[in-house]
Amino acid sequence: MLTYNSDEDLFVLLPQLVRQEGIRSSLIVVDNASAPESVRRIREWTSLNYPDAVVGPSEDVQAWAEAHPEEARTSGRVFVIFNRENRGYSAGNNVGLRFAGFLGADAALIANPDMRIEDTRFLARLAEPLFADERHCVAASRVVGLDGKDQNPQREPSFWEELLWPAQYVRRWFGFSGYVTASGTTEPRAVPKVSGCCLLLRLSFLKEVGFLDENVFLYCEEAILAARIRSIGGRIVYVPDVTAVHAHRYGAKGNSARHIEFFVQSRGYYLRTYSGYSPAQLTALALSYRMLQYALSLKQQLSARGA
Question: How far, in whole angstroms, is CA 286 from its chain's centroid?
């Protein structure tokens, strides 16, 4: 679980994961260089609620686990790792994923702190379809937002959708769900893509591909993950009869202009590296996104003048 200035959400989700039944698990929290006050609250809350937790920077937690191998692998053990710098979503998650691999885990759950998982057998019910087929690299549940709308499963836009309507990506941050597809069944099935807010990943797959691609700071991680799974002949399995709630509050954190810049940079990297589009198509999409950035910049300037 990766957190960045999200301690209040963390204090809700972590106890829900501690209560998981039917599976052996370790709880790994990675703080991605949050503000000092958030770090202080996490330390104090962890000390009060999980006094046996192993807390510290990555190298200290790793050293403790190496010195105490049996204790480190005790089911229910809580680890809290504090990163010294924020190198992005994928890089931050990789710290926890690599440590899970060191502990001998077969799978690891990525869950944003604002997930709400009431089902005490959530992990066990996801693990079963994940390991039912060697080709399954990721298993994801139904995810419902606070607005009651489904966030899984998803698909990538076509070239023409992306060329003509890039603003839909921006709308997605404010609740747009145009690329969420209908489940169509209550049985687990292979899907093109799922949300990165909550998913169970097979560790052998992560080790095979070198863990998550750290070339993007934020956004497009799902598209990149899906492309890498396809490249090795793997599958993403969607499990619609298992549900989690995504208690995300749009616009609650961050600078929207900066987030748009992150998105455009990340999308450009994905398109160049994974899409398979021709040079002409990539040029057209790059121009489309530059026009989008210009329009948003102009809008912000006009808003500032009118303020």
Answer: 25
| Alpha-carbon gap, residue 173 to 295, rounded angstroms | 17
Q: Which of 287, 280, 259, 302 is nearest to 166 (CA)?
A: 287
Global pTM reads 0.90
Give the contacts of 172 (CB within 8 A, at least 6 positions apart): 178, 179
**Could you tell me which residues come within 8 angstroms of residue 165 by beta carbon, excluding any fewer than 6 positions away?**
157
pLDDT tens readout for residues 274-298: 999 999 999 999 998 888 777 777 7
Beta-bridge mates of residue 144? 150, 245
Number of neighbours of residue 291 by Cβ within 10 angstroms: 11
Q: Compute the distance between CA of residue 272 and CA of residue 81 in angstroms, rounded to an integer.
A: 33
Residue 111 belongs to a domain with what CATH number? 3.90.550.10
Handedness of CA 64, 65, 71, 77 (dihedral sign): positive
For residues 170 and 264, what is the distance between their CA atoms, to the nearest angstrom? Answer: 10
Question: How many domains does the chain contain in total?
Answer: 1
Domain span including residue 131:
2-306
